[in-house]
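debug: dumping io for the single-chain case to check the tokenizer round-trip. Nothing else runs in this session.
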Amino acid sequence: MVTTKNSRTPGRPRRFDPEQAIETAQYLFHSRGYDAVSIADLTKAFGINPPSFYAAFGSKFGLYTRVLERYNHTGAIPFTSLLRHDRPVADCLMDVLNEAARRYVADPTAAGCLVLEGTHCNDPEAREAACGLHTAAENSIRAYIAEQHPQEAVRLTDFISTLMSGLSAKARAGDSLARLQETVRLAGLALQQLLPR
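debug: decoded output
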């Protein structure tokens, strides 16, 4: 009689996938906020025990930095492709705001911007990490505006940044895409006045 060995015994748990865990953690941090997610929440969601969690990520903050890195590459607003040089600056800034509005309401259970919401968390390390990405985004916008309108770069960057924070907060409060887009439309009127073609 010939027997064959199964490579996986029945009932054996699937192997832990760190990349899948980071994706799951991104959803948890986005939907609940960094402060509200515990190690117990994470280990339960991943199907692992705390020692395995610490071996994989070092700490909750270590995992959060991986989540922010993933978000920056897969979920963040693509400033590089939106802030173009072949279109008017005001139009491109409107594209950024409209894209923000769409992304912020895309998942009602994880609304708003992961980075912007992270800038308000209580943990100093996590807050600093989120602020670092937020500052990098502001710097991209400022540099883009300064190329054609250097005298307007600082105040318009502040304006766009404030609008994006407001759009994120309103999305988390449950506002619809239509309401966010109306805010963006009003912002567009101001941008067209300040940045004539």
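debug: round-trip ok. The two ends are 83 Å apart (CA to CA).
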